[in-house]
Amino acid sequence: MIPSVLPTYNRAPLSFVKGEGSWLIEADGRRFLDLGAGIAVNALGHAHPALVKALTDQAQNLWHVSNLYQIPQQQALADRLVEATFADTVFFTNSGTEACELAVKMARKYWYDKGQPDRTDIIAFSGSFHGRSSAGIAAAGSEKMTKGFGPLLPGFKHLEWRDFDALEAAIDDNTAAVLLEPVQGEGGIRPLPDDELKAIRALCDATGCLLILDEVQCGMGRSGRLFAHEWAGITPDIMMVAKGIGGGFPLGAVLASEEAASGMTAGTHGSTYGGNPLGCAVGCAVMDEIDTPEFLDAVNRKSGMLRQKLEGLVAAHPEVFEEVRGSGLMLGLRCKAPNMDVVAAGYDNLVITVPAGDNVIRLLPPLTLSEEEIAEALTRLEAAATQVETA
Description:
391 residues, alpha/beta, Aspartate Aminotransferase, domain 1, Aspartate Aminotransferase, domain 2, 12 helices, 37% helix, 19% strand, Aminotrans_3_PPA_site, Aminotrans_3
């Protein structure tokens, strides 16, 4: 008999009832150190007072009116994002998946309006993850994502990650855009080196292709910059954002240059809930906290400390771990043991990690993780590794 909740997840036997900063409290009272942050969503931890206040204050006034009207909170957040990034304009969604759908539409509409309606192909890469909508799974292209869901949305080409020669050869007169994650998340915490991202930007410039960056997981301060592409000194034409932008409240966005967004006129796209007052009030509070040099400097300092300790963990447990990889507080441990065994041992030792592809466990803690909590994280990860070794 099918359960009342559709069984599309293999859920851990944990029921969390409260969160406090970097900690989750299970129904039985156990306190877990949360190094997953809801898969990079709770960027400021659980129940951050500034976010609680923003949400509570807004909830007492207005929840929803729809995009038929001006929404002051939406305008304020759009202005903040335009001021802080390459973008000239922003469309708000509820999720990264919805952001992917608009990014694909925007790129294709751009070329249609330029009088090149056949320029519809979007090049994407192995190991990518862009959500679970029709466009998202077609962009990822892997059998795991697409099997049983055909016919797939056409117009996507798939190349091996970091194969620049193949990318040069694949771009032709029908190519609309190149779509990639500066740091692959689901694919196993695989950062694209800065020089390669610069080369891809230059190739897009030379061929006229739009560059779409998916910063749903690696954006909003997680890399130690507001957005990960800033480390390479380049800008995209279109960027997908979600997860951390709402700090736990469902919120996403597509940021774009004026040129890339030129085809998206009234009636070409919409959203019932996207950019609602509640979400945007929280988003503004998130930006207040994250978009400061002091906050991002602290992320970089703590990421260096955490990475150094993780290197020691790998050296101490060579039968369990192979390497540390990642950027900022988006780190991965590639495992020799099955990664799900390590995740499960973490549960036993009251620490939350998140599995990923390439036999990796992800460490995506709140960006507010303290130095004391970093030390505690290593104590618990050490215990989990020892448990895996002796199992």
